Amino acid sequence: MSTPSGHDAARAAADWAGVSLSEAALARLDRYARWLVDEAIPAGGLGPREADRVWTRHLADSLLFAAGLPSRPDIVVDVGSGVGLPGIPLALVMEDTQFWLVDRAGRRTRLLDRVARILELQNVLVLHRDVHDLSGTFAGLTFRGSIPRRELPGVVPRLLSPAGSAVLGLSTRPELPEETPELLEALAGAGLVGEPLRVPDEVLDAPGWLLKITHRG
């Protein structure tokens, strides 16, 4: 599932997010893209119409999350990882960081175990667990449409270390979602600060927003 335009999108996303996308990492992204099409989509891990936009909608989009993470986090927890998005693309470009791919569905974690073996990912740990049962504090958290946003003010303060940051996939539209002020207010009430990050239109030939979340002060 390798395409020049897909590679260009991944490079543009990595450049904007401030991470290096080596040729070796790009080759492993190729393998991951093929796995998504050949196994994840037939297994229901992605929608049946996603094959034509695996690179732009999923792989390059996942790399954008690095923009909101600390520069060298020790552990990043990908909450509700599904078939590894954004956790696996991030693990490929942040090799010094351990990524915990957490999902409460056994079917999805079995898929994650398999692709982690295929890609020989030494910095990935797959956990079959609900985020509400997870304990500890972590330097980074990622949420790509994985939990209801109303749950963020309860989940993030409990799991995020004082100097860490969480990144939420907020929108793929030009404008911020109407509920963003309400979400920011709820986060502030939990001692958190939400910072919307605008993804320039030219990065993926489409607009987008991320939300970086940190502890206040």
Question: What would you say this structure looks like, in words?
Answer:
It is a single chain. A 7-stranded mixed β-sheet has the order 3-2-1-4-5-7-6, sandwiched between helices. It is built from 8 helices and 7 strands. Strand 4 (138-143), helix 6 (152-159) and strand 5 (160-171) form a beta-alpha-beta unit. 43% of the residues are buried. It is an alpha/beta fold and 217 residues long. It has helices spanning 4-17, 23-40, 54-63, 87-93, 106-118, 152-159, 180-189, 201-204; strands spanning 75-79, 98-103, 124-128, 138-143, 160-171, 192-199, 208-215.
Short summary of the structure?
It contains 8 helices and 7 strands, in the order αααβαβαββαβαβαβ. The protein is of the alpha/beta class.
Q: Rg to the nearest angstrom?
A: 16 Å
Ends apart, CA distance between termini: 44 Å
- Helix-strand pattern, N to C? HHHEHEHEEHEHEHE
Major sheet: size, sense and barrel closure? 7 strands, mixed
Helical percent range? 25-40%
Number of extended strands: 7
Structural class: alpha/beta
Portion of residues in beta strands equals 15-25%
Mean pLDDT score, rounded?
95
Characteristics of this structure?
217 residues, 7-stranded mixed β-sheet, 8 helices
Compile the SSE list and pairings.
Layout: H1 4-17, H2 23-40, H3 54-63, E1 75-79, H4 87-93, E2 98-103, H5 106-118, E3 124-128, E4 138-143, H6 152-159, E5 160-171, H7 180-189, E6 192-199, H8 201-204, E7 208-215
Parallel strand pairs: 1-2, 1-4, 2-3, 4-5
Antiparallel strand pairs: 5-7, 6-7
Helix pairs in contact: 1-3, 3-4
